[in-house]
């Protein structure tokens, strides 16, 4: 592998059922971390909420959810083997989990851990999808707005493993602002985990569009920000509730260089060229030269449509 190449692995998880223990989830992550390291990975990306089933699909009280699915510390006794193995193999990782903070607040969180098992970056999910009320008519719930607060750390980028790594979580990948805020901090690689149900409870959407929009979002954002993206699914049927796979490594060209083939535990790998984005960064997406922030004010002034339009020219 030449000096410029960065070994990136994405470790997709198949289903985690309600009855599965956190220990069994960690054992699966440990096994995939070993495989990632054996294939030359410097960093392995695990999914969103990787230690439990995707519990926001179930109606329950916040207290119940907290007792059953949240981590009050990280590393925790149950995740310590992951940190120990990362250190002994010299590999970094991204991990998503439900965080109960010291002040009692709850977040949908991910961390970046370096090859010495130090937590170097924490991200708390900002674009929380779903609802907070009970929808008994729906086939399942999507209660992220009930169980989690909106993240309060912003979108960060961390120097690690010889490059600049940004992180986000699932629904964030559909929003161009997520990636632009990170690319303005010189992110070269953005990693994320996701749990994307195959059915939309809010409107009828053919399942094939779920995969299309997932890949479209990442391909467009990788290209428009000249960065690499590594995205890890938790997928397959969790107790009868199906979620899409499609874990992928996407290049700054917008091309997919690796994609999972199953809906099970599966490691994908690419030796990625960290110079591949340079042409885009230096030319078509030379931000310093071509961006026009004086015309982008509405991006931060308006949440949505509804305030007055631009004055009409007579
Ligand atoms: N976990 C998560 O954020 N899931 C959402 C489902 C939203 S429905 C469009 C996602 O964006 O995949």
UniProtKB/TrEMBL annotation:
InterPro entries: Aliph_Amidase/BUP, C-N_Hydrolase, C-N_Hydrolase_sf. Keywords: Hydrolase. SUPFAM superfamilies: Carbon-nitrogen hydrolase (SSF56317). Residues 6-274 form the CN hydrolase domain. It comes from the Bacteria. The keyword Ubl conjugation does not apply. The keyword Magnesium does not apply. PANTHER family: NITRILASE C965.09-RELATED. This is Amidohydrolase. It comes from Variovorax ginsengisoli.
